[in-house]
Structures are given as structure tokens and as C-alpha cells.
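Minutes, project check-in
Item: structure for the 844-residue chain
Input as provided by the requester:
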Amino acid sequence: MKIPTATYRIQFRNGMTFDRVAGLVPYLQRLGISHLYASPIFTAPSDSTHGYDVTDANEIDPISGGRAGFDRMVRALQEAGLGLILDIVPNHMAASLENAWWRDVIEHGANSRYARHFDINWSRRLTLPFLGDTFEAALENGEISVRADPKTGKPALAYYESFYPLAPETWQGREEEVLRLTDKAEIAKLHERQPWRLMSWRDAPHDLSYRRFFEITGLVGVRVEDPAVFDDTHRLILELVHSGAVDGLRVDHVDGLADPKAYLERLRQQAGPDCYITVEKILGKDEQIPADWPISGTTGYEFIESLSDVLVDGENIRLLRKAYDDVTGKPVNMAAELRAAKLLMTDRNFAGEFSTLLHLAMGIASTDNVALEEQAVRAALRELLIAFPVYRTYGTAAGLPAQSSEMLQRVAEKVRTSANAPAPEALDFLTRILSGEISPEAGDKATAFRIRFQQLTGPLMAKSVEDTLFFRQNMELALNEVGAEPIPRAFSLDRFHSEMKTRLERQPDALSGTSTHDTKRGEDARARLYTLTEAPERWAECVARWRQMNRANVSVLEDGPAPKPAVEWMLYQALAGVWPPTLHPQDEAGLQALEERFLPFVEKALREAKLRTDWADSNDAYEKAVLDYVRHLLTPANQAFLQDFSDALQPFIRAGLVNSLTQTIIKLTAPGVPDIYQGSEALNFSLVDPDNRREPDFVALDAMLHGHETPESATEESWLSGRLKQHVIARLLHMRQQNPTLFRQGDYLPLAASGQRAENVIAFARVAGDDALIVIAPRLVFSALDGSLAQPQPQRWLETEIALAERLANRRYRDILSGEIISLTDRYSLESVACSSSVILVSA
């Protein structure tokens, strides 16, 4: 298996094509990338912006260039010595009329050859929740008619430009008669005769006949656990792997599958031992990928979370929390907030999935003659789902593996002893179902319950935490990231070092990301916002002053001020994270460009919080009031605020850029395969999607890579433009290519600092045989930076030094960044190093 030394993530669609990527190959080669990491390349709906809504898994997307364009891109990559990793989506497909399989299921119902390809409950009619109102209301309003499908000529129920095919037996032999139908009662009767029924999208959460991806009704679950379905959906994928065009696969949302382990074993068997395979999986704190999965690891969300231990000031974060509490008016009980978010998801957003589980449980109770009231089982099921601390367990028809069984018992005990403990007999009954301790007669129902339960806990966790709680609680936005946990915790270098040792042991070939198409903000925005924990009182004073300056633009609505103080705090912090480092307060075009990006983020943040507005029921007056407040913040006429905001932000910008370089160096030298998200080799101050999926300026990136930059020689412009970051990345990526064993297998050795600034440095080494690498990078330097990054004050790491283990001592090293040759004894003194600089020494 060829393990990547570094990957570069590219988003297709939105103008990015295979031929354009082929043109980027020389740049990627100069940057030091070993593998292109591509977003899904298979055919998706014509209006798709991301490609995860696949309509044909066996056709390469014509919009991106089709098979011919793909082959040209592969040739360009291979001629340059670069490999290709594909993002594949086995869990779901688009529930779109452009999906021929889905369309066939609509037309033929349970008799379709693809009826069992999708995870559909065929005990009732297939629900199609794509109307803006009920079927009856849409019909009455004249929005539904019978017309010939312009693509097939067959009769269909037309809803605006969507044509839902009628079952052949309901029109064949009387086609002209059906096409002439205008009577609404007759159209309604025709609708009743179909194997499907049109319904409002609002009814999907509690009345859906198919498994969806999270809350997205436009994505239907695929039964890839069926070998025939696996074969049908992986034919082209495997052809590309076997032909040598594709070197690796990234499996999207592996936890959505009925049996992830069995799927991965089949994929490994079919793809072969040389295919590099990673999975998108969010790990809970201290959770590890199951050791028996035949993969190289995850796509690295847990690595992002680990970096907070390096860059968050654990001593001062309590002051930031206090300042936030003062603004909101009361201390935040995060455990209670998490419970509230999970309750909302369970009772409302996933009500249908919950009802399915409850129905299965009661059926098992009936089969096994277990006398339990439905209300008691309902309460126990609710508490069990809410208490789950990780995405899922991995039970099969045989029951739960040991690791999952231990997890279930811990969760059940937590529920049993909680303030909301349900009836113990109901809880015990559910745990027996999940563990497989039921009668053989109830075995099939228990397996179905176990799979459905496991397929719900993941979406429930994601939507509760990442897409609700992280938009409600905004004390430190940098911590509200995919893969992170919302409960307050301690931060320490020791914890980071421990996690890197475990990472080397458990998944040394996993991807290490800092930005992705799904992260809540770009890596450099996060790096900047970490610095708020270093100067919490200063930040709180700024927010208080800015709120006062803009207080006249707070609206008073019937349900309270808009925005409330907690939302104001969020707005100023989010704006601080995304503010371009060179934006001048009088730059009207720059302010307009920022507003165009920031307003959609604010709307999304308000709706995801689900407090005063929601995707399902928007509060237009509230949203308008908050968006008008934001417009006021960024209007060029608001110069007093803009100038103050920009000036106050400068020290946070400088410290954030140091953080950015430190987290980049760690990513490129710690265990794991560094993944560079498109454009993040420079500076990425993006917001949540769709902002983070904007195409970078590749022409500018290519031009910027020429020359030679190090922290010592960099100008202020090099820091602010991202040129320095890009050049450090290129230097280290080429070093990784030259020393693959050192980075893949080399021991990870934490190094201890001593002296006046011992707490302001992170140091570690990688050692493999005679090869050694020493990494020393600054952290928590907000108070040490004054003025320009290029010419910092003569602040030195006074009396600060790094002790070197015997394996590292008494050797000659070359500084990768400066080129200097250094002979070391058993320690390295930092007295001559600028406080914004890093040191990377490789054995000479």
C-alpha cells in the first residue's frame, strides 16, 4: 500500500473541472503534495453544489468533465508522480428525479428492481416529501396537474417543474384519458392509486417511509449491506481502483451504514490490499477506531480537537467563560444545554425515526411476552438515546462486540442513576434488545432495532451538538468545531502529547486535517480565535465597548431584543475570526465583499440555534432585525466602530498568525498524514459552508509559491498574505517525501521546556533509527508580541531551553527553515530565537 505523504483536497463542481485540476498539477507538485484528494466525482443533480447527492454511482460527472476529462486529469497526476484519493458516498443517494434508480422506484414501487437498493419501509406507500404544503392544499391551489413528462412522454403528476411518474398499471390502455384529467377529485383518486404519495416537506420529520441522511429528505439511505447493492453501487469505483487510476478511497459518513465493519471488510476485499482507505468518523474524547476495521484511520476531525490543547490558554479560559456568563446574564450549564438540544432533536427533528424504534421495541415485547407499558418504554428509549456520548455502537445480528457492550453498559448505568431515570425494567429491556439477549423468535426484530438505533445515535449527536448547541453557546467559537465536545474541560500539553502517542500507535496513517469542507470555520480563523483565551478581559472590554457604540441599532421586538447580548457576543467574535488581516476600515469594496459572506453565515447561525427562528419555521422579523444590525456594523458610514474594531483586532491578528504557523507545523510533523484543504496552504478565514467551499485564487497561490520565505526573513506582508505559511508547508512537505519512514513510523517523543517561557513553547521529536527531527514552536505568545511580526521587539526566550533525550543529544542538526547547521549537546537554548519563530531541526 502506498501511504500518502500529504494530500490536497479539491472541491469539484461550482466551476471546478477535471481539466482545471490537471492544470494545477505542477503547482501541487511544487507544493510537495503526494496525492490529490477529490470530493465526489460521480454524477449528481444538475444543481448540486457539492456532489454528495449522487444520482449515478457508475458515471463520472459530465458537469466536471466526464470520463474523458477524468482520464486526462489522472494522466496529468500520474505523469507528475501524484496519486489520487476519491471521496465515495456509500450511505446515501439523491432522492431526485434525476436519479434513474429512484425514479424507477417511484414508477414501479415495491416491484422495481431497485426497490431494495434503498432503505424503504414497504409496509406503506413511499413518501415523497417535496411539496411546499399538503397534497390537498397544493392540488386545490392548482399546483398539481396531470401532464406528459417532457423527458419520457409518459403521464406524470406534475408539481411545477417536477414530474412524478405514474405506475404503468394506473394509466396504460387509457393514456389519453389520464392526460386529459383536470377534475381535482379524479386527480386525487389517481394519486391514491400510486405506490407513492406526495406530501409536505414539513411532515418529513415524523412521517417518512425511507431512511434519510441526517435531516435531509433529499438524500435517501442506500442498503449497501446487501451484496447485490454493494456491487451495483461500487462497480465504477472498483474499476477505477483496479485500473490504477485511483490509489485510495475516503468513505463518507461510515457510521450511517448498517454494519460499518462488514462494509469495510467487503470494500477491502474488493479493492485489494494496496488501496489506501480512510473513513469519515467523529470520535468522542478517548474513543478509538475499532481495531479490527481494515482501514488506515479517520479523516482527522479528532486531530483538530487535539490542537486546542496546544493553543488554548487553559489558565485563562475561565475568565473568558465568566465574561460570557456576565453578558448572557447567568452561568451556562452546558450539560443541561446539551440535554435540551438532544431532547429537541429526539422529540421533533427525528420524531419519525424515534417512532420506528419504539414500534419495533413494542413488537419485540409482544413476541417475548414482556409486560411493559408503551409510555415506560418510550421514556427509557428517549433517555438512552439522549445519554449516548459517542456516535454509535457496532452491533450486528450476533449482538454487540465487547467494546460496544461495555459502552452500552456504561451509558445504561448513567441513565439508571440520573435525575431523569426511567423505569428500570424498561431500560433493562432495551439494553437486552441491543445486546441480543432476546428469544430467537424476536431475533429479526431485535436486529432491525439494533441497526436503526445505531443509525440514529450518530445523526442525533451531530445535529444536537454541531448543528444546534454550537450555534447556541458561543463563549469561544474556536472550540465549536466538528469533532469537539461541548462540555468544559481542562487543556494541557501533556494531554496533546499523550494523544499523539496514541495516534502513532492506533492510526499513524490517518489524515490530519485542520480545515475541511465541513468545518465550522477555516483553520486560520480558529487559530486567531484561540487567542481570545489569552486576553479574555481585554476581549470582554472590547465587546462591551462595541455593544455600546452600536446599541441604537438593537431592535426591541415582542419576544425580546434583536440581537440579544449573547448573539451580539457571537457576532463580534465571528466577525473577528473572518476579518481579513489587511482589510482597512475605509475600504468600501472590501467591506461589501465581507458583508456578502457574513450575512448568510449569520442567517444560518440564527436558524441552526433554533431558539427564535428555525429552518422549519423562520421568524422573519427577528432575522431581519439581526441582519440589519450586522449591515450597520459593516456599513462604511459606521467608521467609529470599524476603526475601533480594526485597531483592537491587530494584536489578536498577530497572535493568531503565530498560532496558525504553529498548528501547521504540528500537523506536518506529528503522527498522521497532513491534509491541505484547498487554499489553506495560505490563509483560510472562511465561515461555515457554503463559505468554506469557495474556490481559492489558484493563480495567486501559484505565483506566491516562488521564492524563499522563513520566519526569520519574512516581511510583514509575508505573514499577512499567507506566503510564509505556504512556504513553510512546501519546505516540510518535501522533507516528508524525502524521509517517509521518519514521519510514518518514527517514535513520538515529547520534549520538556524549562525557564522563564517554558509554558510558551511546544516541543517534540520524531525518531526512527539514525534519523531524528526536533520541532519547537511558540504558543500563547499574545502578550509577547508587539508591533510588526517581521520585526518583533527584542523579546527573547530568556533562560528557556529544551532538554534533549539521549537519542537526540550530541548530534548535528540542520534547521529546515533557516538552513543553519547546529551541533547540540543535551539541551537546546532558545535565547536567540524570536518569539514568533519556530525551529525545525533534522539530523544532519
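Outcome recorded: The CA atoms of residues 247 and 759 lie 42 Å apart.
No further action items on this chain.
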